[in-house]
């Protein structure tokens, strides 16, 4: 059973309260889980960067916000990736296939790639990886430009997939950095991994350092085709914004904030954003979570 939830004029009819059935559950090292949920109304509206607010357990009143990693509007399912932090997500990790979870979604303003810059650099760190996978998959299926996404992902715990050497060559990537996400390789999307944990085939350093190394090899004409998209910890997003300024590139970032209602009512997730009319407080849940990097992180 599902019903539309109306939250302000800009989001009227776009957020649904849906009873989502758990179709599959995968566990990975580092207390990481991927849940596949039958949620046709959410799947039909989801965009890269949007998220859901999900009930973890009937005995835990507060929902948890989780980014959507994949969505199939035709088959009506969405995938969520999360790492267990706290009692709520620990309870969510214990839910059984066939159970129903109350969910609000999709919520938020997502990424907006521009066809004039088809060489897209997607940077995901830790739990910020899911929106990058969603965006890469969407770009791979679009025909309004010759999209060439490059996905760079960083993690200090094992990645939530079995890595393997990439079959896609990427000029400018440091020698020996060959670890990739197999699912992206299968789509024809180039990816590379970074970690300071010493994982085989990964770049030894922060994911933003890997991005810097790659951008440095490109001619100015090539960089003029690039737009950056990022999601991850705040320090990583700050570093990404500095990187964008260094190379004079447009950049969109998805922010992570604690949320109570997640539908714009409580304003507990408000952040300062620079606008044409001066500084303003914007709600990460419904005004974001995606913002222009330059408006959030001062130079």
- Helix content percent band: 10-25%
Distance between the termini: 48 Å
Question: How many β strands by DSSP?
Answer: 18
- Helices and strands: which structural class? alpha/beta
Strand order of the largest sheet: 13-12-9-8-14-15-18
SSE run: EHEEHEEEHEEHEEEHEEHHEHEEEEH
Shape: globular
Portion of residues in beta strands equals: 25-35%
Q: Might you state the CATH topology name of the largest domain?
A: Rossmann fold
CATH superfamily of the largest domain: Nucleotide-binding domain of ferredoxin-NADP reductase (FNR) module
Sheet with the most strands, sense and barrel status:
7 strands, mixed
Q: How many helices?
A: 9
Query: What low-confidence regions span 5 or more consecutive residues with pLDDT below 50?
Result: 1-9
Q: Evaluate the radius of gyration.
A: 19 Å
What does this protein look like?
With 299 residues, the protein is α/β, with parallel strands linked by helices. It has two domains: 2-107, Elongation Factor Tu (Ef-tu), domain 3, CATH 2.40.30.10; 119-253, Rossmann fold. The strands form four sheets. A seven-stranded mixed sheet has the order 13-12-9-8-14-15-18, with helices on both faces. It has a six-stranded antiparallel β-barrel with strand order 2-3-6-5-4-7. A hairpin with a 4-residue loop joins strand 5 (64-72) and strand 6. The protein is built from nine helices and 18 strands. Helix 6 packs parallel to helix 8 (234-247). The chain starts with a strand and ends with a helix.
């Amino acid at each position: 059973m599902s019903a539309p939830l109306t939250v302000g004029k800009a989001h009227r009819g776009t957020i649904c309260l849906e009873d989502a059935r758990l179709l599959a559950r995968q566990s990975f090292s580092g207390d990481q889980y991927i849940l596949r949920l039958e949620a046709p109304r959410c799947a039909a509206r989801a965009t890269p960067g949007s998220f859901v607010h999900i009930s973890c357990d009937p005995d835990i009143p507060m929902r948890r916000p989780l980014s959507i990693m994949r969505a199939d509007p035709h088959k009506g399912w969405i995938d969520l990736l999360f790492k267990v932090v706290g009692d709520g997500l620990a309870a969510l990790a214990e839910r059984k296939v066939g159970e129903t979870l109350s969910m609000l979604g999709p919520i938020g303003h997502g990424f907006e790639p521009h066809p004039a810059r088809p060489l897209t650099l997607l940077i995901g760190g830790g739990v910020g990886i899911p929106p990058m996978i969603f965006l890469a998959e969407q770009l791979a299926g679009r025909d309004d430009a010759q999209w060439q996404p490059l996905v760079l992902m960083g993690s200090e715990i094992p990645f939530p997939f079995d890595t393997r050497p990439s079959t896609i060559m990427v000029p400018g990537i440091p020698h020996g950095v060959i670890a990739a996400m197999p699912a992206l390789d299968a789509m024809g999307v180039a990816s590379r991994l970074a970690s300071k944990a010493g994982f085989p085939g990964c770049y030894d350093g922060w994911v933003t350092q890997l991005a810097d190394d790659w951008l440095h090899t490109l001619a100015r004409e090539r960089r003029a085709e690039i737009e950056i998209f990022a999601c991850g910890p705040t320090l990583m997003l700050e570093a990404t914004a500095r990187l964008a300024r260094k190379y004079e590139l447009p950049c969109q970032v998805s922010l992570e904030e604690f949320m109570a209602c997640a539908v714009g009512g409580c304003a507990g997730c408000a952040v300062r954003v620079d606008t044409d009319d001066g500084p303003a407080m914007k709600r990460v849940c419904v005004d974001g979570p995606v913002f222009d990097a330059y408006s959030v992180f001062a130079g």
